[in-house]
Amino acid sequence: MDQRKNESIVPSITQLEDFLTEHNSNVVWLLVATILSCGWIIYLTYYNSRNVGLILTLVLNRLYKHGYIHIGSFSFSVLSGKVMVREIYYITEDMSIRIQDGFIIFRWWKMYNPKQKQHDPKAETRLYITVNDFEFHVYNRSDLYGRLQELFGLEPTIIPPKKEDDKTRENGRTRTQSKIERVKVKTESQDPTSSWRSLIPVIKVNVSTGRLAFGNHYQPQTLCINFDDAFLTYTTKPPSSHLDQFMHIVKGKLENVRVMLVPSPRYVGLQNDEPPRLMGEGFVVMQSNDVDIYYYMDEPGISFLKCHIYWFLCFFFCI
């Protein structure tokens, strides 16, 4: 009886062949292929990017120990050179960065000219970044407070000391000297055409709905900078001094900018100085429809670093 039941439940290969022959096997295989194709398309459309984001989140948090990184979904297209992400979180003990969604387009099909100037602000854009719902929040400065505790000889209560940090402090001078030598060798032997700035001379960034916040629940007010749209362009130029490497330049325009003092939601202390008036979320310090940004900074060279180190050592030994 058991053998008959097993034979009736699990068909053999010959029985399957006879069944397919009797019921037109082409139609059956077409139906199976259609169902599998629909399932695969649904998976690629709705679930593949989320699974890739979950895997990247686990790998990055396993490798990076100084914060938490979360990637909701991740997908890319080689043909269009586009990388799309969603729900990006980067949280540390001092700050947090949150991005709802965005994408990066690298225009690899543009011809690369090795004779192109390395610092050409009018060059074509190969890298284009778009971000939606950007939020940057600074709520602590634990490194600075930890250094103050160390200078005053207090016990470290903000960040517990680690063995790796102690070893780094002991070998700090040796590592600094070795880094200077490596930078010197790299600077002397670097070819201008091999730099990433010759491949990507200009980077354009568009941000839709951004917010910058500075404060925490120990302060009665939090400084918030809100804007609707931001159009930024990053490029490099030759430095203003021959001792420097190059100059960073960021130009941009912000729309509907508001600088406000917002009451901290979890503040439980006494508030002595209340703002004169509240408009919406908080007290508006500054408001403008259009704000132009022009920021530039020189990248210091090895000679500049050596000069500062030399004067520091002279001052130290004189004391």
Automatic annotation (TrEMBL):
Keyword Transmembrane helix appears in the UniProt entry: yes
Domain Bridge-like lipid transfer protein family member 1 N-terminal: residue ranges: 1-302
An example Gene Ontology biological process: synaptic vesicle endocytosis
Transmembrane segments: 27-47
Keyword entries, A-Z: Membrane, Transmembrane, Transmembrane helix
GO cellular component: presynapse
Full protein name: Bridge-like lipid transfer protein family member 1
Species for this entry: Neovison vison (American mink)
Source lineage: Eukaryota, Metazoa, Chordata, Craniata, Vertebrata
